[in-house]
Amino acid sequence: MIIFDKTEQGRAEIATRGQTVGPRLRTLLLLVDGKTADDELLRKVAGLGLGQEHLDELLQAGLIQISSSPATHAAAPIATASITTTTPPLRLLRQQAHQKQQQWVQRFLQNRFCRQGKPSSKRFIIFTTIQSKA
User: Fold this and answer.
1) How many Cβ atoms sit within 10 Å of the Cβ of residue 106?
2) Domain around 123
3) pTM value > 0.90
4) Distance (Å, rounded) from C-alpha 90 to C-alpha 24?
């Protein structure tokens, strides 16, 4: 995890709206704040088609630099750890979605194959067969 900050040249580029970088790179440059980790920055601009090579391009152009503040490096892992502990695990979300889907199918089959609580003979056989397999 690397945290980048704007250089004086990068701040001047933003302030004067210079034409050194294109609009997509300007967006990435605007997001560099000296607090956000590189992986978080790249996730924010992934929809624009920007990746690590674009951060490297800004670094080589002298518009950003690796942050030297130890406080920002220490604070970033704590912030991300609190976010990950509050979100439910992916496995739990999948189980909940599967349970909802099973309940929906069961209600659908009951409504489709049982009329007014009384199943017809063929429909009842199909319904009970499917229900017993679930």
Assistant:
1) 14
2) 90-133
3) no
4) 32
pLDDT digits (tens, 9 = 90+) for 7-33: 998 888 888 887 778 888 888 888 999
The three-state DSSP-derived secondary structure of 17-46 is: CCCCCCHHHHHHHHHCCCCCEHHHHHHHCH
Q: What is the pLDDT of residues 47-89, one digit of tens each?
A: 888 888 888 888 888 888 888 755 444 444 544 444 444 555 6
Helix 121-133 vs helix 90-113: crossing angle, to nearest 10: 170
Q: Are residues 49 and 110 in the same domain?
A: no
Taking the C-alpha atoms of residue 113 and residue 126, their distance in angstroms, rounded to an integer, is 8
Helix intervals (H) in 45-134: 52-60, 70-86, 90-113, 121-133
Same domain, 30 and 69: yes
Angle between helix axes 52-60 and 23-31 (nearest 10 degrees) is 90
DSSP state of 23: H
Strand partners, 65: 5
